[in-house]
Amino acid sequence: MASALAQGLSHGTIVNESCCLHYWYIAGTDPDRRLITFIPGGNGHGIQFFSLMKALAAQGFNCVTFDRRQMSASQPIDNLPHKPLSPPQQARDARAVIKAMGHDKSIVFGSSSGGLFALQLAQDFPDMVEHLIVHEAALVNLLPDSSKWLDWFVYLVDLFDTQGIEVAQKAFEVELIGYDAEGVPPCVRPDPGNPVNFWQNEFKVQLGYMPNLWKIKQDKVSVGAMRGVRCKDAFFARAVDELAVVLDCPAMAVPGHHQGFEVEMEDFLPSFMGMLDTLEKRKEASA
Q1: Residue 78 main-chain phi, psi, to 5 deg
Q2: InterPro entries, per this entry (predicted)?
Q3: Cβ contacts of 61 within 8 Å, gap of 6 or more
Q4: What DSSP letter does each residue of 42-59 carry, written as one string?
Q5: 263 vs 146: CA distance, rounded Å
Q6: Closest Cα partner for 141 from 69, 213, 232, 53?
Q7: Cα 203–Cα 204–Cα 208 angle in degrees, nearest 5
Q8: Picking from 5-9, 136-140, 159-163, which range would have the lowest pLDDT averaged per residue?
Q9: What is the DSSP letter of 102?
Q10: pLDDT tens by residue, 185-237
Q11: How far apart are CA 221 and CA 32, in angstroms?
C-alpha cells in the first residue's frame, strides 16, 4: 500500500537537530513554484497526504510532506533515545523541510496536532507562511467547556500510565467521531512505533498546549480554519470554530471526518481549493 501510494513522488532526507527527517514531494506546473507543506498530526506519518498532494500537483502546486520526528522513517541519528515533544522544535522541523525544498515561504496545511505545530510555525516564523490552513487542531483551552476536556486528557494520561497504551487508545478513540460512518474507507495505519511515541512522548506535552495566537494575529498571518462535517460536535471540531473567532479568520465545514483529506480526498479537494481562493482574495483585499 505504502509503495503504491508513493508512486509519482520523490523522496529526500535532511538532518535537523539530531533527527533524520524523511520527506516526500511532487512537482507541479505552477510557474511561480508555490509550495504546499503538509504537517501530520498524532499518527505522525506523511503518507496520509500522498493522494491529496498528487491531486494538487495536477492543479500546479509543488507539495511536500514528511514523517514527523520520532515517527515512522524519521528517527534520531546515532540511535539517540526518543525525547519529549517540543512544539517549537516541531515547527523548526517543518521549517527545515521547507528550506530543503529550496523555498523561503510555503502554504501550510496542518491537521490535528499538525495544526498545532503549523500554528507554532506561524508564531515563530511568520514570514515563512504564505497561507496557513488549520484542520481540526484540538486547542481545547479555547472551548467554553475546556475544563471538562482537560480533565478528560488527564484521565487518559492516567489510563496510559496505569493500564497501558491499548486501554488509553481505546478510550481516546471514543471521541473520534465519524470514522465508522458507512461507506468510508479505512485510513492507512501508522507504523506500530508511532502510537507508542505519541503516548509516551507527545500526549502529555500537548495537553492544554497553546501557541501564541495573539502574536499570530498581530503578525497578520493569513489563516483559514477547517472542520470535518462527519465530526459533528467533536471537541476538536468545535475548537476550530473558536480558533476562527479568536483569529478573525475564515472558517469552513469540509467533507469527511478527522482524516477526510485522506479517505475522501476527491470530495475534500474542492473545499481545499475554495479555502485557498478565499485566503487569496482576503489577502488581496487587505493589501
Answers
A1: 55, 30
A2: AB_hydrolase_1 (IPR000073), AB_hydrolase_fold (IPR029058), AB_hydrolase_sf (IPR050266)
A3: 28, 30, 34, 35, 36, 107
A4: TT--GGGGHHHHHHHHHT
A5: 30
A6: 213
A7: 95
A8: 5-9
A9: T
A10: 999 999 999 999 999 999 999 988 999 999 999 999 999 999 999 999 999 99
A11: 20
Of 60, 112, 118, 66, the C-alpha closest to 256 is 112
Q: What is the pLDDT of residues 246-272, one digit of tens each?
A: 999 999 999 999 999 999 999 999 999
Q: Taking the complete model, does pTM exceed 0.90, yes or no?
A: yes
- Assess contact for 226 and 275: CB atoms under 8 A: yes
For residue range 104-150, list pLDDT tens digits in order: 999 999 999 999 999 999 999 999 999 999 999 999 999 999 999 99
Q: Which three cell numbers stand for residue 31?
A: 510557474
Residue 171: burial class (beta carbons within 10 Å; 0-12, 13-18, 19+): middle
Task: Report CA-CA distances (Å) from 118 to 122, 150, 157, 193, 210.
Answer: 6, 22, 24, 23, 12
C-alpha cell at position 183: 461507506
What's the rounded Cα separation, in Å, for the pair 246 and 142? 9
* Cα–Cα distance measured from residue 99 to residue 101, given in angstroms and rounded to the nearest whole number: 5
Q: How far apart are CA 187 and CA 220, in angstroms?
A: 35
The grid coordinates listed for 257 are 471526518
Collapsed DSSP state (helix, strand, coil) of residue 25: strand
CA distances from 171 to 148, 163, 201 (A): 15, 11, 18
pLDDT at residue number 287: 75
How far apart are the C-alpha atoms of 175 and 247, rounded to whole Å?
26
C-beta neighbour count of 10 within 10 angstroms: 11
CA distance 132 to 240: 13
